[in-house]
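Re: weekly structure request thread

Next one in the queue (109 aa):
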Amino acid sequence: MRVQLQQLRYFVSVAESGHFTRSAEALGVSQPTLSKQIHTLEATLGAPLFDRSRGGVMLTTAGETLRSIRIGAPGPVTDSGTLEKMIGASGITPEAALESKPELANSWA
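Done, posted below.
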């Protein structure tokens, strides 16, 4: 499975707003569509990107790492090959995410 640029746009929106519903409205997509794409991105990367609660979402360690890739990019990332190289170089792996949050091991096994 490959990371899609649209998934990253969705990720950035949720990361900035802290809410799936608000992001879905701003992006002009349904909330279930947005959630499914974020879950697919998390599955592709092998780590949860958000801690979800009734009050909103917060970035996990893996989510913070992914956001830092976007911030550290020298310009817009326009192809998935470059994106995947950047993500791979960032060290986002299930092990890296679980190392900082061992309680996630059971929910993402």
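The chain has six helices and two strands. Confidence is low (pLDDT under 50) at residues 94-109.
Next request, please.
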